[in-house]
TrEMBL record:
<feature type="site" description="Lowers pKa of active site Tyr">
    <location>
        <position position="79"/>
    </location>
</feature>
<keyword id="KW-0521">NADP</keyword>
<dbReference type="InterPro" id="IPR020471">
    <property type="entry name" value="AKR"/>
</dbReference>
<feature type="domain" description="NADP-dependent oxidoreductase">
    <location>
        <begin position="32"/>
        <end position="263"/>
    </location>
</feature>
<feature type="binding site">
    <location>
        <position position="112"/>
    </location>
    <ligand>
        <name>substrate</name>
    </ligand>
</feature>
<dbReference type="GO" id="GO:0016616">
    <property type="term" value="F:oxidoreductase activity, acting on the CH-OH group of donors, NAD or NADP as acceptor"/>
</dbReference>
<protein>
    <submittedName>
        <fullName>Aldo/keto reductase</fullName>
    </submittedName>
</protein>
<dbReference type="InterPro" id="IPR036812">
    <property type="entry name" value="NAD(P)_OxRdtase_dom_sf"/>
</dbReference>
<comment type="similarity">
    <text>Belongs to the aldo/keto reductase family.</text>
</comment>
<keyword id="KW-0560">Oxidoreductase</keyword>
<dbReference type="Pfam" id="PF00248">
    <property type="entry name" value="Aldo_ket_red"/>
</dbReference>
<dbReference type="InterPro" id="IPR018170">
    <property type="entry name" value="Aldo/ket_reductase_CS"/>
</dbReference>
<feature type="active site" description="Proton donor">
    <location>
        <position position="54"/>
    </location>
</feature>
<dbReference type="InterPro" id="IPR023210">
    <property type="entry name" value="NADP_OxRdtase_dom"/>
</dbReference>
Length: 276
């Protein structure tokens, strides 16, 4: 991958992952997802994040095949859903995702939510897919520290990525520190708080100070914390501005001010509701 070093992160297994990607949650097949992926890739995005439960893998794959870009330049993530977990179920779910995407391999495959009863068998299947070369990297989504510890006590290959809800109202400092110690790359979903960052006065103030949009301030804040990020949008202007975050830097004092916005508030589900 021939990219600017500031735009990629190297996972502990030496796979290079773009630090900014397009999330396609709630982007429907038959228009929204195809348009968003096309705009994103043409605008410089190389990471597209989807999941079985989004029901748009087919649309993502079809659009990628229509674009003038080589497979090697792309980084495609998908996830195994809760009801598909377990060893054999995960292998079957992956094969369906791979066919829906029209790919020979997937760059990153994640466990979508921590289901304690099936986590170990699901991870064994992930390890098999990784060792066989069907996926370049494996990881988890929405895993808290205790979930990661439970998994790593029972695995051969530790997760390379933990994709979690991360934003100014949920800074996850302990989890972030733990993942850094374990060389697990944190990736932020819902980094823009489902649009609520536009209502935060400090973010508005910093946007004015740095001559950037509120979204660019928050996404740059992600990167300066060492967190990769996958903002979701289907609007051309928003998709473009969300990746235009490499030419400025937020001062440390302002980083600290954004950190202080933390309320331990989630806009998505609490992972522990699944960990039973």
């Amino acid at each position: 991958m021939n990219r600017d070093d500031s735009k990629i992160v190297t996972l502990y297994n030496q796979v290079k992952m773009p630090v900014v990607g397009l999330g396609v949650w709630k982007a429907d097949v038959g228009g929204d997802v195809e348009t968003a992926v096309k705009i994103a890739v043409n605008g410089g995005y190389r990471l597209i994040d989807t999941a079985t439960i989004y029901e748009n893998e087919i649309g993502v794959g079809q659009t990628l095949r229509e674009l003038d870009i080589s497979r090697e330049q792309l980084f495609i993530t998908t996830k195994v859903w809760n009801t598909d977990q377990g060893y054999e179920n995960t292998l079957q779910a992956f094969e369906l995702s791979r066919k829906n995407l029209g790919l020979e391999y997937v760059d990153l495959y994640l466990i979508h939510w921590p289901i304690k009863a099936t986590a170990i068998e699901t991870w064994r299947a992930m390890e098999h897919l990784y060792q066989q070369g069907y996926v370049k990297a494996i990881g988890v989504s929405n895993f808290e520290i205790e979930h990661l510890e439970f998994l790593m006590e029972n695995c051969q290959v530790k997760p390379m990525v933990n994709q979690v809800e991360f934003h100014p109202h949920l800074t996850q400092k302990k989890l972030l520190q733990y993942c850094k110690q374990q060389e697990i790359q944190v990736q932020a979903w819902s980094p823009l708080m489902r649009g609520n960052i536009f209502e935060v006065p400090l973010i508005q103030h910093l946007a004015h100070k740095y001559h950037k949009t509120p979204a660019q301030i928050v996404l740059r804040w992600d990167l300066q914390h060492g967190v990769a990020t996958i903002p979701k949008s289907i609007k051309s202007s928003r998709i473009q501005e969300n990746i235009d975050i490499f030419a400025f830097e937020i001062e440390q004092a302002d980083m600290d001010r954004v950190d202080a916005l933390n309320e331990d508030k989630r806009y998505g589900s609490n992972p522990n509701r699944y960990y039973e």
